[in-house]
Amino acid sequence: MAEIQPFRGIRFDPGHVGDLSNVITQPYDRIHTDEQARYYGLSPYNLARIIQGRRGPQDHAADNVYTRAACYARTWHAEGVLQRDACPCIYVLDQTELTPDGSYRTRRGLSAALALTPFDEGTVLPHERTLSGPKADRLDLTRATEVHWGHVFILYPDDGRRVEALLEDAVASSAPLRAREQVIESRVEQRLWVIDGPQIIGAVCEELAPKRGLIIADGHHRYETALAFRDEMRERYPESAPRAAFNYVLTTLVSMGDPGLVILPTHRLVHSYGRMSSEEFLDRTHGYFDVQRVTDRDAMEAALQGAERDRPRFGFYDGAHTILTLRDPTVMAQLLPERAPAWRLLDVTVLHELLIERVLGIDKDAVERHENIHYVRDASVGYSAVDVGEAEFFFVLNPTRMDQVRACAAAGERMPQKSTDFYPKVVSGLVALPVGPAEQL
Asked: The whole model's pTM is what?
C-alpha cells in the first residue's frame, strides 16, 4: 500500500527572501556550471548553495560542499530564512507552462511524505536505470543536512480522478504562494497551497492508501538514496518508531490521467565521430530501416508524428533531412529475446541497439561515458550543432508514450537512460522534508 503522511515542511520565509522565484531551483542534476552561476546570482539564499554547491580545489573533509550545505541550512534556520510549518501539512503544487503554440497547460501535484518500500514489493516501481555516483553524492548531502531537499516525482493510477477532486476542494478557498522558475524552465509558473486541515488530509491519504504500481517519473537516484539513508538510520537507531521521518521520502505525486502530464523527447547528437560519412551510414541502415529523404525540417518532423506504434521512426539530420522507419519489428525480438516486448520497441532502445551500436559502432560503454553522444531537449540546438560543424549527425526522436512507461514498469524493465523527460520538472525550494533521528510524522 502507498502510505502517505503530512509533515511539518521546511519552507523559505518570503519576509526574509522576498520573491520565492529567486530561491527555487531545478532538481540538482539539472544544475550545471552555467546554471549554478545564474542561481547563485539570484539571491544569497538560493537553494543551489545547498543542493548543488560550488566545489573547490581546497575542499577537504572538514570543508566541502556537504559541510557548507549543512552550515547554510543551520544559518538560514537561525536567521529565520528557513522556517518550519507549525503543524503537519500536505502541499498542492500547480505548475503552469506556456506551450509553444501559445496555450497554457497545468499539471497538479501533491507533495507529501511517502513511506519507503523496496521496488520488489510493487508499491513503487522504477522505470529507469541509476548510476552509483549520483547516489553517493546525494547520500553524503542527506547525511550532512538530514533533510530531503529534492522531490521524487511519482505517478499514481487515479482513473476516477478522485484524488484530484479532493485536492480541488482543498485549494478552492485559499490563496497560493507563487513563484516562477527563472533559469532553466522560465516559462513555468509555480503555485503552492499549504493544506493543514486534518479532514481533507485524512481523506487524501485514505484515497491513496490502497494504490500500487506507482511509477517514479523523475528522481530514481533520490528514491534509492532515501532507501539507503533509511537503512543506515535504522541500523543506528534500532528502537526508532515506525513513523520516524527517515522511513519516508519527499514526493510530489501526479495522477497518470492528469491532462497536464507531458513527456518530451531527448534527442541525440553524434559528435567527434569521424568513422564513416553520412552516405555510408544511410547505406548501412537499409538492412533495418526504410530510408526516405524529405525536403526540410517541417516535413521531417511532420513525418515523425505519423509514426506507427510498433514501427519506431527517427529523423536524421546531416545537413539534409531523412526519415528512418523500422522495417520489421520482429528484428528486435530476434536480437533481444530476453527483454520484454514493451522495452524492445521503445524508440530509444531501437535507436541505440540498431543505429548507434550496430550501424555506427558506438558501444554501450562509450555511450555511458558520453564519448560521442550528446543529449539535447531543444531540437533547434541539435540542428545548429550540425550546421556549424560541432556535430556530425543529429537523431530526432518522438517522445516516449505514457503507456510505454507503464508497460515497462509493470514488466520490471528499466528503460535506458534519457528515455523520458517529464516536463516541467518538480522544482526544489518550495518545501523540504526533515529526516533527522528526532523527526516523527
From this structure: 0.91
